[in-house]
């Protein structure tokens, strides 16, 4: 949704091919226009799809951080130097920062310099709901905690209320892609689809309240991303390995029920964005699509330069989809494909830099459209 209008999936998918469809001159014009938006900083919340290096610090005591700090993570853009990103290279947030002429957004927990041009509060494994909801005893790295980090940082960015409102009015905010971990944890706990559907409104309310919270600080532009199609994610597919064929979508090989959960989440999230936009007409609140982009790549991988076995990961262990729950990417036993740019999935959950690039191109154009119509 841009402004008060909901964008149809076809529009998103057409824009996803912008990197191929636009001439070099047109692409340069689009980038110049985006830089003309005059964002001076980017602030982001979220999970591993946005995390640029917080997880090794936050999860330092636990092996969830180990693998992303070992090769082959970072092999594409960062020349083999792992940065804590869950990919072979840049994430969507990185491409957007570059498109706006800003530096890559530094991770709040690991960066030692200035945050005047933005901060990334996203952490791998982050949930929308507080950790206590899942009764697993894990560290709470929920949206609420990340918003607290912003408020902890705020006094170093501005002093008076008006100065802060002016500063944040020139900033671009990303309200994560929350919900992925909430639902994936629940899938792993074997919760029924009925149980999961029951708390989707709580996830949506949490994201909505988080968006309201940053608006109160003076933020004027917020991007609220939807979710990826979880039913196409290799680590989720493995959990359905013994399921009846009727549980799969015959055209994509994805599992139906998890994707139905995500579709409901995304629909309710778009409704929430429309409500927020009506409540705050002076704020540009943009729903950014993930689901339809990834589904487009799954259905037509060749159009994006991906291999036909599009659900097979680039980095993993022996097994279906080149995924093995006991062999993480980064382990000695793991193997990596020769060319990550020909794959949609980097490992069990996350995408390759190539996939993120296609998505980022559309998000940049969506942001520009949102600003021009507001």
From TrEMBL:
This is GDSL esterase/lipase. Residues 1-27 form the signal peptide. Keywords: Glycoprotein, Hydrolase, Signal. PANTHER family: OS01G0223200 PROTEIN (PTHR22835:SF506), ZINC FINGER FYVE DOMAIN CONTAINING PROTEIN (PTHR22835). InterPro entries: GDSL, SGNH_hydro_sf, SGNH_plant_lipase-like. It comes from Urochloa decumbens. Belongs to the 'GDSL' lipolytic enzyme family. The keyword Plastid does not apply. One of its GO terms (molecular function) is hydrolase activity. Pfam families: Lipase_GDSL. It comes from the Eukaryota.
């Amino acid at each position: 949704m841009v402004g008060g209008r909901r964008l149809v999936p076809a529009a998103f998918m057409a824009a996803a091919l912008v990197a191929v469809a636009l001439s070099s001159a047109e692409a340069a014009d689009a980038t110049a226009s985006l830089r003309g938006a005059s964002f001076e900083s980017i602030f982001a919340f979220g999970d591993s799809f946005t995390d640029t290096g917080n997880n090794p610090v936050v999860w330092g005591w636990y092996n969830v951080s180990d693998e992303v700090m070992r090769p082959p993570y970072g092999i594409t853009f960062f020349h083999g130097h792992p940065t804590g990103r869950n990919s072979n290279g840049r994430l969507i947030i990185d491409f957007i920062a570059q498109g706006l002429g800003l530096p890559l957004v530094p991770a709040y927990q690991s960066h030692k310099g200035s945050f005047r041009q933005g901060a990334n509060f996203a952490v791998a494994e982050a949930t929308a709901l507080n950790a206590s909801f899942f009764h697993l005893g894990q560290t709470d790295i929920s949206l609420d905690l990340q918003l607290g980090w912003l408020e902890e940082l705020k006094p170093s960015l501005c002093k008076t209320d008006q100065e802060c409102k002016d500063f944040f009015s020139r900033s671009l905010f990303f309200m994560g892609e929350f919900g992925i971990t909430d639902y994936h944890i629940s899938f792993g706990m074997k919760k029924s689809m009925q149980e999961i559907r029951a708390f989707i409104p709580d996830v949506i309310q949490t994201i909505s309240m988080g968006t309201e919270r940053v608006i109160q600080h003076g933020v004027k532009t917020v991007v609220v991303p939807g979710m990826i199609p979880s039913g196409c994610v290799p680590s989720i597919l493995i959990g359905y390995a013994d399921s009846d064929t009727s549980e799969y979508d015959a055209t994509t090989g994805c599992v139906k029920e998890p994707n139905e959960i995500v579709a409901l989440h995304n629909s309710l999230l778009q409704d929430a964005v429309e409500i927020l936009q009506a409540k705050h007409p002076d704020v540009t609140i943009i729903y950014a699509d993930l689901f339809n982009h990834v589904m487009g790549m799954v259905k037509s991988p060749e159009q994006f330069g991906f291999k036909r076995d599009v659900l097979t990961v680039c980095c993993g262990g022996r097994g279906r989809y080149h995924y093995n729950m006991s062999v993480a990417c980064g382990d000695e036993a793991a193997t990596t494909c020769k060319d990550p740019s020909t794959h949609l999935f980097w490992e069990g959950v996350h995408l390759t830099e190539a996939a993120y690039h296609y998505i980022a191109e559309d998000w940049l154009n969506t942001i520009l459209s949102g600003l021009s119509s507001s």
